[in-house]
Write a structure and sequence with these properties.
two-stranded antiparallel ribbon; 5-stranded mixed barrel
């Protein structure tokens, strides 16, 4: 068998590099001639040639991804680390939801591709599996799967591309995914609270008067008194008649709503004239994490999401 043409190192040496990461990521490591590839990976042009840089800790999406250096520009045409960090941070809340075991692998293969002599894209099957598992979670928050990650853009598995480290990953997704309503399934952690603040348009401290089921959603009616922490598209007059919804959340558990005798930290987004709940936490006065998060909210700078979710 012949080797595929990867300048500077043999095809098998290249496969060994990826396998050494402990991930077993490469599809098509059986050698084939370059002309047999049905998908051409790199027709991109940059002002600066690709170069290898350290993955900064601030690129939280790819913390502990399994390698320490990435190619810049990346495979989404981000040419500066500032742009990479800004755009990648919009995915961190989804990563925290564990909607698929390979969400980080898929996203980081694009946002922080491993340094190699040629770009290696995720396989279409990897994209499809992550998309199918994570889209329902994203829809809870009013986000669609973005056009920039349409799976038909990626190569088939018989080309050189990144596949599942575990072939049975798709079978385990349903058992790993949480049955709790996604807005109610959040760790009480300062960084995670701030990530969700950035992914949400408004944030309030309030009490809840009543919870109802309505057309497959869960309808949340607040009490009159509310303290805005972030208003976003809302105006103060909107707070008087504010109603919130957990999209498709009529039947999934939300333990925070089992007892309404407390204040809540509420975050949400306005989608199609509905105010969707994205996060709910009990406002625990003793919680250091809540106190730190609320203090940081005043100066915290959020990334811009419009470039990702259109």
């Amino acid at each position: 068998m012949g080797e595929r043409g990867i300048p500077g190192k043999s095809y098998w040496d290249f496969c060994t590099v990826l396998l050494a990461l402990g991930t077993g990521l490469l599809a098509g490591c059986a050698a084939m001639d370059e002309e047999e590839a049905s998908w051409q990976a790199d027709s991109r042009f940059y002002i600066k040639p690709p170069h290898c840089v350290d993955i900064p800790f601030a690129l939280r999406l790819c913390n502990n991804v399994g390698y320490h250096k990435m190619s810049l520009p990346n495979l989404l045409d981000h040419e500066t680390m500032e742009e990479v960090q800004q755009q990648a941070s919009s995915w961190v809340p989804l990563l925290n939801k564990n909607c698929h075991p390979n969400t980080q692998l898929f996203l980081c293969s694009l946002y922080a591709p491993i340094c190699l002599d040629r770009p290696i894209y995720p396989c279409r099957s990897l994209c499809t599996a992550v998309r199918d598992a994570c889209t329902p979670v994203m829809e809870f928050f009013g986000f669609p799967w973005p056009d920039m990650l349409k799976c038909d853009k990626f190569p088939l598995d018989n080309d050189l591309c990144i596949v599942f480290p575990n072939p049975n990953a798709t079978l385990s997704t349903s058992s790993q995914a949480s049955e709790v309503c996604p807005p109610c399934d959040n760790e009480m952690n300062t960084d995670i609270i701030l990530d969700h603040l950035c992914a949400s348009e408004f944030a309030l401290k309030m009490k809840i008067k009543e919870v109802k089921k309505e057309n497959g959603d869960r309808k949340i009616i607040p009490q009159k008194k509310k303290k805005p922490l972030k208003l976003g598209p809302l105006k103060k007059k909107d707070l008087k008649k504010l109603t919130l919804y957990i999209k498709n959340g009529a039947d999934c558990p939300c333990h925070q709503l089992d007892n309404l005798n407390s204040n809540f930290l509420i975050m949400g987004r306005k989608v199609n004239k509905q105010n969707l709940l994205t996060v709910i936490h009990r406002w625990d006065k003793k919680s250091k994490e809540v106190k730190k998060a609320v203090k940081k909210m005043k100066t915290h700078v959020c990334p811009t999401f419009q470039g990702v979710f259109k």
